[in-house]
Amino acid sequence: MKLLPFKVVDKNGKPHLEVEVKAGDVRTLSPEEVSAMVLTRMKETAEAYLGEKVRDAVITIPAYFNDAQRQATKDAGAIAGLNVVRLINEPTAAAIAYGLDKVADGKERNVLVFDLGGGTFDVSVLALDGGVFEVLATNGDTHLGGEDFDQRVMDHFIRLVKRKHGVDISGDARALGKLRRECERATWFWSRLSMSKYPS
C-alpha cells in the first residue's frame, strides 16, 4: 500500500478521500471533486493569462479510460464551471503537440506514442490520415509512472531514517507530506537532466 497523506474511505459504495483542510476541519471528497479542484485551478491560470473568462474546455484523458471514467471527467469539468466540448486521448494530444496533425504530404502514417505520465506508462499506436487520428491500439501499465518513482525514493528515505535514527515516520502524515514534496522535487530535477553518467 502506498503511503498517502490522506485516508481513502467508502461513501455509498464509492471511494472518497478524507483530508484535513485546516486543523480540525476534515472533508470527504469524491474523485470528481478533487479533479474539479485541479481543473478550477487550471481554469483560473488560463483566465489570468488570457485576460478573459474561460467557459469551454477540451480535456485530455488516458486512452484506456472506460465510459464511467470519461463521464467522471466530464462531471469534474462541470463542477469546475467548464463546458467540456470534447475529451481527447492523451496519445492523440501528444501527436498534435508535436505537430503531426500538420503533416500534409497525403500519406497515411502509423505513429507510436510513448507516454510516461505521473501515474501511468502508456504506449499507443495511432493511424494518421489527413490530420485525422485514430487510436489503433493502446497498452501500458497503470501502476508505473512518476508517482511510482517518487514512492520508491520515499520508501528508501523512510527505511534510511528508521535505520539511522530508529524513528519510523511511515505513520506521520506531516513528515510524509514534507518527504513527498522533497522527493517530487528531486525526481522533477532528475527528469529534466538532458543526460547523466552511469557510474562504472
From TrEMBL:
- UniProt-listed GO biological process terms: endoplasmic reticulum unfolded protein response; ERAD pathway; protein refolding
Q: Pfam family of this protein, just one?
A: HSP70
Record keyword Nucleotide-binding present: yes
**Chief location bin:** endoplasmic reticulum
By its UniProt entry, which InterPro entries does this protein fall under?
A: ATPase_NBD, Heat_shock_70_CS, Hsp_70_fam
Keywords (alphabetical) are:
ATP-binding, Endoplasmic reticulum, Nucleotide-binding
GO MF term (any one): protein folding chaperone
SUPFAM superfamilies from the UniProt entry: Actin-like ATPase domain (SSF53067)
- List the GO cellular component terms: cytoplasm; endoplasmic reticulum chaperone complex; endoplasmic reticulum lumen; membrane; nucleus
Where is this protein found?
Answer: Endoplasmic reticulum lumen
Give the protein family: Belongs to the heat shock protein 70 family.
Identification of the protein by name: Heat shock protein 70
Which species? Triticum aestivum
Cite the source lineage: Eukaryota, Viridiplantae, Streptophyta, Embryophyta, Tracheophyta
Q: Which gene encodes it?
A: LOC123095547
